[in-house]
Amino acid sequence: MSEVRCPKDGSLMVLRTAKRGPYIGRQFYVCSYPGCSEIISYDVQNYIEALGDEQWDVRRAAAMGLGEVGPGAMAGVPSLMDALRDERWDVRRAAAMALGEIGPDAWAAVPGLIEALEDEDVRGAATTALGEIGHGAMAAVPSLIRVLQDEDARGAAAASLGKFGAAAWPAVPGLINALEDRRWDVRRAAATTLAEIGPAAAAAVPALIEPLRDERWDVRRAAAVALGRIGRDAIAAVPALNEALSSDRDEAVRRAAAAALKRIWESGEDDSGSE
Ligand SMILES: [Zn+2]
Predict the structure, then answer these.
(1) Is 27 helix (H, G, I), strand (E, B) or coil?
(2) What are the pLDDT digits (tens) for 166-216?
(3) Domain range spanning residue 190?
(4) Would residue 120 count as lying in a domain?
């Protein structure tokens, strides 16, 4: 293996074996610069080097390996960012997935992932990854809203937008459309994200009434939860929620309808609107 340099200060890193603690026997590269605490696990360093391999399947396996390490593979973020521009689409897609599995610490890859949304083969994986990065990926919200128009990545976009909470409110019109998608998982993801947006999703109230009669129980439940989270502005849905409460065949839906009705009444009484 070639020499390993600290990603923070460029100093030489030396291989050490943990002598105690939970990682006893495991090997790590430790920065030689006094006071620098940068550590890279031996596995992660191996994967980083393998991302530069000539063979595409080795590069893809390396990206997947970093994804399996997850949040501990932060040192691999710069190399995975390069891999987003690999000539092979399956390497690019594996890199996007790995960045999502690393999660919030992969924030530096957000611009590259937004760019990857234009790459048809990678769009779904990049969409999911931006959601997994969460608040550090806030700049991606307008791009994710555009992905809602892509039939193949719509469900992933609807789900990812939910990770931004109320800040995803500009997505409400696109999510209203997605409530009518022919795929139930897309309808459910749209309703679930409208619930995360909460009172700012009030414009979706009329569109959430129909899904209370969806053929899928989990879509019906998600619609009831969303109406409850919207709160007092969902007052127009009260008759439909009462009907779900009294006659839905699924207990989980009846319970969600009861909870939603309670939230709508309580938010009507309490002007703070915090619930
Ligand atoms: Zn260092």
Answers:
(1) strand
(2) 999 999 999 999 999 999 999 999 999 999 999 999 999 999 999 999 999
(3) 167-269
(4) no
